Amino acid sequence: MDRMDFIQGVTRVRVLENKLLDRAAIEKMVEARDLEEVFRTLGDTEYASAVTQAGKPEEYEVILHTELERVYRLVREISPDSLVVDLMALKYDFHNLKVMIKERLMGKDLSAIYSRVGTIDFEKFKTQFNAGEYRDMEPVSYKEAVLSVLKDFEEKKDPQRIDILMDRYYFEHLHKMAKDSGISLFQDHVKDLIDFTNVSSAIRLKKQDKELKFFEEVILENGHIEKDTMLSTVNDSVETMINRFRNSRISKELSKGLEDYLETGRLSSFEKHMDNYLMNLNKSSKSVTFGPEPLFSYLVAKEMEIKILRIIMVSKMNNISPDAIRERLRDLYV
Q1: Residues 29/51, Cβ–Cβ less than 8 Å
Q2: 91 CB-near residues (< 8 Å, 6+ apart)
Q3: Is 178 helix (H, G, I), strand (E, B) or coil?
Q4: Tens-place pLDDT, residues 290-329
Q5: Element of type H or E holding 17
Q6: What's the rounded Cα separation, in Å, for the pair 173 and 176?
């Protein structure tokens, strides 16, 4: 990538960053009496158009996904290289592939949970899949992933493996894209994400009392922490894991996450620290004037903002107290 090609894009992103919700706006929504009051607050922000499209407060996912689609379209328009956006959008492709496979195997209509954010013409891909026209399906790598997962299901009849195998394909694609970009922030973001994901998976598998063979299938390659090191935690307590990773890149936030998990017993507590780490990693883009990093980091920031709004909205629907909501919130980019 030629960093100079991003001069105009960075200028546009700096304007967009000023429209991100700040802590004061988030706090106002945390203190809101109910979901309707949250909606009214959002109506005064760049979510106004999305709020108008939602029929009632319970349809908050309409607002969040409408805004997500708008932002991805906008950043695609201003990015001179689609890879910057594709890195973030790739997970929606693989979400859709999982849904498409489960739809066939379960014989149910799951169309409501497909995402319209992605990197490919998914409707065309799905139409060819449903028609059994595999030969012309593109991209070929997606076709190979889908057919491999279907073959595995035919042999093992284990629906849990659909997610495991498809996640492995997703992270392999993501790592290759980041590596091909030559941008160190993208590579570190992906490798750190893989490390956090592996630790999260290890905790979950220990809780389920899974054996080493299952660990070997779930634990991912290509993190900063070697896969063999991750596999060696199979018999570790969480306290031992904290010591084992004390010298890793992500050790500070990883330790906090594991300690919170020990205290609460909830993986969501661990995932909060992963999100905060990745957000802080991307804040280095604020000092970049020429290059793709600010566009990528803006998407990371916007996705985190939407995650925070989802936490607030779900909490309001379930009458969670403001203090309990604050404990679940993530760091903001601004």
Answers
A1: no
A2: 170, 174
A3: helix
A4: 999 999 999 999 999 999 999 999 999 999 999 999 999 9
A5: helix 7-17
A6: 5
